[in-house]
Amino acid sequence: LMVENQLRRAIERKEFQLYYQPQIELASGALVGCEALIRWMHPERGMVPPDRFIPVAEDSGLIVRIGEWALIEACRQNKAWQEQGLPAIPVAVNLSPAQFSSSITATVEIALMETGLSARHLELEVTEGVVMRDAIEVIDTLRELKRMGVRLSIDDFGTGYSSLSYLRRFPIDKLKVDRSFVDEIGADVDDEAIASAIIDLAHSLRLKVIAEGVETADQARFLLQRGCDQIQGFLVSRPLSAGAMAEFLQTWR
Ligand code: G
Ligand code: G
Ligand code: MN
Ligand code: NA
């Protein structure tokens, strides 16, 4: 309850910040996107990572307002970078299941309209749980978002319960291989097999695939050999403040 009250206050006091983690095309090294990751700049506790407060925000329903803020802020920042002449790339925003009601389409529309960001420069990350929850309604909402021109990806893929037959019917652009499988590349043949299977599954459904949490050149080499399209992780860059991300946009070849 204490954290919940502090979170309420944090919204009013604008204590949240977005960090951005670059996403790279594996074969070419080209910068193809970035993921917005929220941080709570607590006045006494310093920077609080999302796993310490997102669950509380979800349980209390505060995630809807925090998530709306993150969506608009990511769109605003991306548009600002473009207006500074920096390369135009999509920004990916994480959506919590609680945000994923039918009103999410209106929220996204407002964010794009208010910031002037074009829909193709916004990607939304949903989890397997959301996609499987309420198939018919979710498909309608995802289709509406696709009609608007927004990109869609499934986050933490492989950790939830996936129905592959559902997956085929969702208008998804990209699967994100969960970090837990990438971690074990070079160490656990079963996790290597899962990572490879997700890459093949994505491609057979004509989806892009990105591996998260790539930390070593050996992991990147393995993923390249298996045909993985993109990577994100400490090997390329930690999540960066907006200022540091602007510099990354400017200097990355
Ligand atoms: O940046 P970090 O690795 O600590 O993020 C941990 C998790 O918090 C990520 O897996 C991500 O899904 C989640 N997260 C980060 N930013 C947001 C956000 O803006 N909204 C939601 N719902 N989750 C986020
Ligand atoms: O949305 P998601 O939970 O997947 O967000 C990615 C999380 O993983 C962020 O909190 C980010 O800070 C973290 N992260 C990103 N790259 C790496 C990495 O290479 N290694 C580890 N251990 N964590 C990472
Ligand atoms: Mn994510
Ligand atoms: Na993830």
Automatic annotation (TrEMBL):
<feature type="domain" description="EAL">
    <location>
        <begin position="1"/>
        <end position="253"/>
    </location>
</feature>
<protein>
    <submittedName>
        <fullName>EAL domain-containing protein</fullName>
    </submittedName>
</protein>
